[in-house]
Structure formats: structure tokens, C-alpha cells
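Project standup — Tuesday

K.O.: blocked on the structure for the chain from last sprint. Re-posting the sequence here as requested.
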Amino acid sequence: MTPQPAAVDGEVFRQAMRRLPTGVAVLTTRGPHGMTINSALSVSLDPPLLLVAIGHRTRTHGLLAHAESFTVNVLGAGQRALAARFAGRRAVGEFGGVDWHPSPVTGDPVLVGSPVSIDCRIDRRIEAADHTLFLGAVRHVHSTGGASDPLVFADRDYRRLAEEPVP
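H.V.: unblocked you, prediction finished:
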């Protein structure tokens, strides 16, 4: 029998994952409700599927447990304040003063100024420890068509991508 490695401490894992840069988005659903996430992942192109991981202790988790859809609003580098507004474990961001319109496909909020917003119908909910993975069937993509300068999160702070290509 092969010996099993010792369990990794959650804080050690958290410190390691801080080094992995991720894109920043605001997940929205009807209400309107919103939450900053950095857990969006393209799963499949055929059919188009998008996955988001939402912690059980967030208010958004309770809302998505009964929702039919969600929209992932990708944020640009100039939208740091918007990301901060919808951030926090218990956050269900306030929409007062935020420009948005309902998606014609799902009715979920599409944030004005987001370079890309992706409407999804919840296809599956998968329990994974202290999170639920919400697998969304992509129904519509709203794009401004502008240049991409995404907001990135790494090492506990919002950042921009460097313009220099890697040799």
C-alpha cells in the first residue's frame, strides 16, 4: 500500500493560489443581485458551457440555488471600483448608481461598460466541499467589440496585464 501524503493546510493552499492570476467579473442574477468573482471557467465550446464556483456562505449562493440563470460580466482594467463594490463574502452588491440593463435573453443584469457579458441558463449544480459549481449553458454573449484590457486579480490585489509579450 502506498503511503498517503499529509493533508495540505487550507491557509497554505490559499497562499499558493494567490500567485495564480485570474480574471475578474461580476456575476449577476435577477433581483438585481451581483457578486464579484474570479472563478469563471470556460468548460466547453461545443456546446458552450461556463462554470462558476460559489461559496456556500455567500448570499449569492442562496440566490443561485433557486435561480434559472446568471450572467457573468467580465470587467475591464478601468472597473476596479465596480469590482470592489460587489466584493465580499456576504455581498449581494447594491445596484444604486450602477448602469445596467436586463438581458433580453435571461433578464439578468448586464453591466454597462463591461467588455463582455455572458448569459447562462443553469444546467447543473455540483456540490464540491464548501462551494457549489454552477455549470451554465451559454445562451448569449454581449460584447462591446473594443480592445481587451482585462481587470486581473493576483496576490490579493487588482492588476492590469503587461503590454509586453512573453518572448
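K.O.: great, moving the ticket to review. The chain has a mean pLDDT of 88. Helices lie at 10-17, 59-64, 80-85.
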